[in-house]
Amino acid sequence: MSALLSWSDELSVGIQEIDEQHKVLVALLNDLHNAVLSRHGREAVGPILGRLAEYTRIHFAVEESLMRILDYPRYEEHKEEHVSLIKEVNELHRKFNDEGLNISMNLLHFLKDWLGEHIIHSDRDYGPFFLSRGAKTSWKSKSWLKRLFH
Ligand SMILES: [Fe+2]
Ligand SMILES: [Fe+2]
């Protein structure tokens, strides 16, 4: 089955820890796409949508912490974007649960842009900045903090 969104270098922010989290989001979108295409039904689609909303909140909280710790100058505008993205996915999840909304191909493409455009236009901006503040491109240590910082 074809992927809704394929991982490529275009999506990389240049920091493995963050790329791994973005890959989880991409995988959840593709799971959602597969569940809709194979007509697995609302019982299969609902939990994936829920996980997507939940992991998005976790991921955004991590990014925002890093931005505050590293004193990223565009923190406020990035945070505002996160707030509206979270609202959109929560609203979708709520309509799915309460109003019987179906996840259409249009909605899947909306979610593809919802994630892809934010990574490409906003997340990729902090990559070089984080690296200039000592973030590591990749990790070899098992310690979570050492994965990110020298
Ligand atoms: Fe992100
Ligand atoms: Fe972000």
Largest sheet: none
- Please identify, by name, the CATH architecture: Up-down Bundle
Fraction of helical residues: over 70%
Number of helices: 5
In the predicted model, the low-confidence regions spanning at least 5 consecutive residues are: none
CATH evolutionary superfamily: Hemerythrin-like
Residue fraction in strands: under 5%
Radius of gyration: 16 Å
Question: How would you classify the helix and strand content by structural class?
Answer: mainly alpha
Outline: globular
Strand/helix succession: HHHHH
Terminal CA distance: 41 Å
Ligands, ions, cofactors: fe (ii) ion
Features:
150 residues; mainly alpha; Four Helix Bundle (Hemerythrin (Met), subunit A); 5 helices; binds fe (ii) ion
Topology:
Elements: H1 16-37, H2 42-69, H3 75-99, H4 105-132, H5 144-148
Helix pairs in contact: 1-2, 1-4, 2-3, 3-4
Bound molecules: fe (ii) ion (2 copies).
Account of the 3D structure:
The chain has about 150 residues and is an all-alpha fold. It has one domain: Up-down Bundle (Four Helix Bundle (Hemerythrin (Met), subunit A)). Helix content is about 70%, strand content about 0%. It has helices at about 15-35, 40-70, 75-100, 105-130, 145-150. The longest helix has 28 residues, at about 40-70. The radius of gyration is 16 Å and the shape is globular. The model has no long low-confidence stretch (mean pLDDT about 90).
